[in-house]
Amino acid sequence: METINATGRRKTAVARVYLSEGKGNIVVNKKAMEEYFSLATLQYKVKQPLELLGVAGQYDVKAILDGGGFNGQAEALRLGISRALVKINAEDKPALRAAGFITRDPREVERKKPGQPGARKRFQFSKR
């Protein structure tokens, strides 16, 4: 099997994922996943699509992450892995979609407006 590549995005994070047959190693930005994502919850998020399909030990994942924070990067990586797994076997798509791993989360940060302290926040109103 050749290497399958896919892209995942979340907030401002972008994950380029390369999936190939192997022993289940996950390498993120040339570091082991456990080293890059130190929190167990983020490691769990990344492994979710592989665990759902029961193929955690069959594929090696190499990922290049850019932008965003750790949580956005982990969820972008999850989407990229899910898309790569669908490219390998299209029959897995309904299971991944039911778990919510195929849908790209479209929420982005709202821009700050000029003359105001934030996107929605306003300076205190003074009547007099």
Globally, the shape reads elongated
Name the poorly predicted regions. Answer: none
How many beta strands in the DSSP annotation? 5
Beta fraction of the residues? 15-25%
Continuous helix count: 4
Radius of gyration: 18 Å
**What fold name stands as the CATH topology?**
Ribosomal Protein S5, domain 2
Q: How far apart, in Å, are the first and last alpha carbons?
A: 73 Å
Describe it for me?
The structure is a single chain. This protein has 128 residues and is an alpha+beta fold. The protein has four helices and five strands; from the N terminus they run ββββααβαα. Strands 1-2-5-3-4 form a five-stranded mixed sheet.
Brief digest:
The protein is of the alpha+beta class and 128 residues long.
Task: Write the SSE topology.
Layout: E1 4-10, E2 13-21, E3 26-28, E4 31-32, H1 33-36, H2 40-53, E5 59-66, H3 70-88, H4 93-99
Parallel strand pairs: 3-5
Antiparallel strand pairs: 1-2, 2-5, 3-4
Helix pairs in contact: 2-3
